[in-house]
Design a protein that fits this description.
This protein has 3 helices and 5 strands. The protein is of the alpha+beta class. It has 2 domains: 61 residues, no CATH class; 70 residues. Helix 1 runs antiparallel to helix 2. The N terminus is likely disordered.
């Protein structure tokens, strides 16, 4: 009775990421959560969208940096606060945004270099996978991938 998935006593603990089902024929199935990679095929359209997205993020970071620099100058002029700690905090935030901006510039450069048809990892999602006794483990638990082209699912591998 030490099993987490003991079927005779339903009062036992079942982890929240598992569910089980007792089939009429006596088989047991378990649902597990699996990570699925979502990749995007680079097309002219998706390249434009990514470029616009990166540029918008870069513009937002520049606005935030300008606002932080303005606030820093305003605080310097008022001298109502302890200048050391507050100045360090603002400079750290400005530097964070500068680093993010450099990363975006690098991503934009890479985007120009990539040929159309390249697969870009977009994100990872979680999926429920049902496994049962007799399934081949490596086939069920391999790393599945969803391929998207211009917003439409083109393949599931």
């Amino acid at each position: 009775m030490n099993s987490l998935l003991h079927l005779e006593e339903r009062e036992e603990f079942i982890p929240p990421f598992f569910s089980y089902d007792v089939r009429q024929m006596g088989g047991i199935s378990v649902q597990i959560i699996q990570t699925v990679v979502v990749k995007q095929i680079l097309t002219e359209n998706s390249k434009k969208k990514l470029f616009n997205h990166f540029e918008a993020q870069k513009l937002q970071l520049q606005r935030e940096k300008n606002q932080l620099q303005f606030e820093l100058k305003r605080i310097d002029k008022t001298k109502n606060f302890s200048p050391g700690a507050l100045k360090n905090h603002y400079e750290k935030e400005i530097n964070k945004r500068s680093e993010k901006e450099k990363l975006l510039e690098f991503q934009i450069e890479q985007l120009h270099i990539l040929p159309l048809g390249s697969e870009l990892k977009e994100k990872e999602v979680q999926a429920l996978v049902e496994i049962k006794i007799g399934d081949i483990w490596n086939e069920q638990i391999g790393q599945p991938t969803i391929i998207i082209k211009d917003g439409i699912i083109e393949d599931i591998r």
